[in-house]
Amino acid sequence: MELPVGLQYDEASPEWMSKADNAWQLTAATLVGMQSVPGLVILYGSIVKKKWAVNSAFMALYAFAAVLICWVGWAYQMSFGKELFTFLGQPDVALSQKYLLAPAFLGKIPNATMVYFQFVFAAITLILVAGALLGRMNFHAWMLFVPLWVTFSYPITAYSLWNPNGWLSKMGIIDYSGGYVIHLSSGVAGFTAAYWVGPRAISDKERFPPNNILLMLAGAGLLWMGWTGFNGGDPYTVSVDASLAVLNTHVCTATSLLTWLVLDIIFFGKPSVIGATQGMITGLVCITPAAGVVQGWAAIIMGIMSGSIPWYTMMVLHKQIKLLKQVDDTMAVFHTHAVAGSLGGILTGFFCDPKLCRLFYLVDNWQHYIGLAYGFHDGRVKAGFKQMGIQLLGIVFVVVVNVVTTSLICLLLRRIVPLRMTEDDLQIGDDAIHGEEAYALWGDGEKFDGSKLSSVHGMDDFGVPIKANAVG
Question: How far apart, in whole angstroms, are the C-alpha atoms of residue 183 and residue 283?
């Protein structure tokens, strides 16, 4: 086989490649992959009602595998390859040895590493979409939804915002590690798909307790720690910017978790474990578009806001806005990802430090990448408002793309296969869908009377206490 120019079989580490950068990039990618497998597999399988544990976990595992095949087959090049349109690349295979062993766009890691790193981001986006659909989507419909969405929706936002040739990238939008491309996209797409799929069974909406909160925390912990690679890997080099991004990520997340916890105690009297987990997630999501371009004090402010604003939309506005009440969003991805992702993008436009932006983007462009706060401070108010405008434009673009593409995919699929399970299957759950159950020990899971247990964060309706059965 022909190798890239200058690369021989005895040159496993060519001069252009940085061993340190490549090692960190592969490590960061694996950390992100572990957020999905096993992180979200465990979290989904344990936070749902017992009868949906297997189905929920397997939706995540299937998506991880299916996305990879689509990614190397055509979707990676549609996201990061040669331009087809200003918002989309040309579909092409990303498996040839000549391509994979050549240097990636910064010239210090091979394309094989870049393809792998970007794959785990695409995969977790689909898995987050699944969170809105747990407990009722027809698994065969999900099997078709995943490759269609990663082909016709994800590459549009990835190319537009992350590819240097993308139109929003050229405008100077700041999305450090996927607050828009991953979290806003998954939140909007999940909510849209939930609208088309329809709600869970009435009995599940009325009573949907986690089957294993301790295991849920294990999955949440993997999600949190894996975010070190999620945000720390995006400079594509071992840099001080990567270190700052990692620290800011954890500072914001801890602040958000504690803020959410305090609000739960003040308004509901109990420190909810599920609520704290939601606060953790909103903190992770909010800091993602800003991780390496804001200072530590800004990360704390962002944590306070990500622990309070999504809390308010979930616990208060959710009960007042008709559309939010009508759509059955099982894992509240609209609040934890769409709201928190939008919030992070806006706050990025306000707090991004132009000096840190130049470290990340490796450009000395004083017309872009300056937060509004620094615009006021440095006398460049016009540039600061311009950055805020670009951030808001990005939100509108991502929302419109995901509402349209997700709706079209769902409308197409329901002509082929029902989007929602039958009522009989909804009553039975895992055994009807897969012929398998998560916990054979407890049988039907109704042996423990948990009538005195309740959580304001029960997954039936946010903010309405439910009676929880510990293993149901």
Answer: 12
